[in-house]
Amino acid sequence: MNKSILLNSVNIETMRNTKQFLLPDLKKAAKTQEYDIYPTFDIAGPIYTGYKTLANWIIACNHDIVIDGYSGVYWDVFISCLNDEFAALGIQANWINVNKTLKPESIIHEITANYDGGDDPLFGKLYDGELSDFFYVEKLKSLKPEPNKLNILYGAGAALAGWKCTLLYIDVPKNEIQFRSRANTICNLGEKLPSDPKNQYKRFYFIDWPVLNKHKKQLLPAIDVIIDEQRINEISWATGDTLRNGLKTMSGHMFRARPWFEPGVWGGQWIKNNINGLNKDVVNYAWSFELIAPENGILLQSGNNMLEVSLDTLLLLDNEAILGKAAARFGDAFPIRFDFLDTFDGGNLSLQCHPSAEYIKNNFGEDFTQDETYYILDAEPGAEVYLGFQETINKQQFRSVLENSFEQNEPVEIKDYVQTFPAARHDLFLIPNGTVHCSGKNNMVLEISATPYIFTFKMYDWLRPDLSGNPRTLNIDRAFENLNFERKGDVVTETLISKQTTLKKGHDWEIINLSTHPEHFYAIERFEFDTEITEDTNNQCHVLSLVEGESIAVITNDREQVIHYAETFIIPAAAKSYTLKNTGKTRAKVIKAFVKDECC
Asked: Could you identify which of 4, 172, 200, 588 might form a hypothetical disulfide with 549, taking C-beta atoms 3.0 to 4.6 angstroms apart as the criterion?
């Protein structure tokens, strides 16, 4: 099929279910003093666009090709568009689909049965196998190129065939994978038909993505071309050397992840009112995923062209350059998460807790748990945070009330059981695992946390349906297997409200320590300065956000980059040191989180 006919016959926007805009084809100059929703990192390049340039590059190779890739790729569209370019050049390719060597769905289901969570709508267990488990490996390796042809073996896992030839790899950002999933246009590994998006996401998280990440790590040193397929009608691509050199440069300098934004039942209006470039035709924005390493991407830029790869590609390539001494403990897993929870003119979050380290390991296969903090970026007068139990809490009574509410759809006066505290800008609330908590309305929370991000056990959700009108899933049983009922009364004030003290002070700057809980493996500090301040990484990765002030310049190894209010940024361990220069008119405040030395 002709490429133009194919792309015109399939409306690209019907292939993704979201109101979020598709990444633009070219990088536009960022407006001054404004949050940038498409942050890029300049590399030497070049970055190319379009199928024609890729087809010409492949033909110039003059030998066989393997095209491997991640989940969510629109393989049929990609192959058709590329094949049209070959045909225009008088080249006939021999296309070989690796999927014909996959095991049947029934066998794949047996292999993954202990990991897919069964009837649990949210949780499974991280699969510890390999991508090759999904294939008849001998059958896969029996696929051979035909003589005197341009043979192209393609599909996720194609490199497992062992062809000694040019390797192309297609990446798709995790947010776009989810938008495609919600449109019922993609399948899980080895599946022939799409499943319910929530069940599909569970399968992605616990099975598909872990094996694909292992596979990608093995391929990274050998990839000859990396392809960003999210704009399926206008792909961007670069050589493997350009990718690896660009990531090596990034590993020694400040960079930002590309954030993405989602509405939610409790979502607010702060993000809509303060961050430009987003689609305003949404009911709210509940989240900004500023830095969730398993899901965010990073945007490389050369000229005006952009190419996105997953953020975890940096760690898969060289985790020590990013994490420094923390790499010994966390390996390829980025340990710290920053995200925004917006309840301005919205509602309370669900009342919730998170699993203990032992529970999350035994039940879900995660190596560390979801220990959190709430840093208050902004708040309206009267805003509150729910945190810890009342002194008089009765475990059985509390459980009975919650279960009755769920069964009878009756409201609960949560403040009879859970304490609330006033929330003001720059407060920090500590939420180690097992702590009952939620943000109240009219907060803009910067959630600083360990990276695991889906293990929220909801006990009460204010009787709300989800945005589609369906009941929201509660996890009362799991919550009560993890709740710490000793965190009550004065213990909460003494141990879960951060104490802020001065660590160092200069003529126009100060470093503030914000105490964390002993169960938090990360520390939090805040820089406050009028002109500039310089800091060493001490072989640690620092995650930072400008929480007050208009903008700052960040200098790492002679490269200067601009950060605006509310933007999150990363200083890799290999940067060694960095300078923050205040370019605004008022004092700048920058929050910083890093792994405690004793927790590495």
From this structure: 588
Q: Return the exposure string of 41-60: e unless at least 16 CB atoms fall within 10 Å of the residue's CB, then b.
A: bbbebebbbbbbebbebbee
Residue corresponding to tokens 């998460």:
337
pTM to 2 decimal places: 0.96
Compute the distance between CA of residue 547 and CA of residue 589 in angstroms, rounded to an integer.
Answer: 6
Q: How, if at all, do strands 509-514 and 500-505 pair?
A: antiparallel
Q: Max alpha carbon distance in the chain (Å)? A: 81
CB 261 within 8 A of CB 227: no
E strand intervals along 172-233: 225-228
Residue 104: C-alpha distances to residues 101, 343, 399 (Å): 9, 46, 44
Q: Residues near 254 by Cβ (< 8 Å), separated by ≥ 6?
A: 554, 556, 559, 561, 563, 569, 570, 571, 575, 578
Query: Which DSSP helix (H) or strand (E) runs through 398?
Result: helix 395-408
Q: Is 302 exposed, middle or buried (0-12, 13-18, 19+ CB in 10 A)?
A: buried
Question: What confidence tier does 3 reach under pLDDT thresholds 50, 70, 90?
Answer: very low
| Contact call for residues 40 and 301 (beta carbons, < 8 A) | yes
Q: What digits encode the pLDDT tens for the residues 320-347?
A: 999 999 999 999 999 999 999 999 999 9
Instruction: Determine whether 585 is exposed, middle or buried from the number of CB atoms within 10 Å of its CB (0-12, 13-18, 19+).
Output: exposed
What is residue 457's three-state secondary structure? strand
Using a 10 angstrom Cβ sphere, with 0-12 exposed, 13-18 middle and 19 or more buried, the burial of residue 407 is exposed
Tell me the C-alpha to C-alpha distance, in Å, between residue 40 and each of 231, 252, 577: 17, 15, 21
CA separation (Å) from 459 to 80, 366, 468? 49, 22, 20
pLDDT digits (tens, 9 = 90+) for 87-138: 999 999 999 999 999 999 999 999 999 999 999 999 999 999 999 999 999 9
End-to-end CA distance of the chain: 55
Q: What is the pLDDT of residue 8?
A: 44
Tokens, residue 357: 């380290």
Of all helices (H) and strands (E), which one includes residue 262?
Answer: strand 260-262
Starting at the edge strand that comes first in sequence, how are the strands of the sheet with 236-239 ordered?
Answer: 48-49, 236-239, 225-228, 166-171, 65-69, 150-154, 93-97
Where does 267-376 have alpha helices with state H? 270-274, 312-323, 327-330, 357-364
Q: Is 569 helix (H, G, I), strand (E, B) or coil?
A: strand
3-class DSSP state of 539: coil
| C-alpha span between 115 and 207 (Å, rounded) | 7
- pLDDT at res. 6: 45
- Lookup: tokens for 309: 């790869």
Closest by alpha carbon to 574, among 536, 543, 534, 525? 536
> 381, 440 in Cβ contact below 8 A?
no
Q: 48 with 236: CB under 8 angstroms?
A: yes
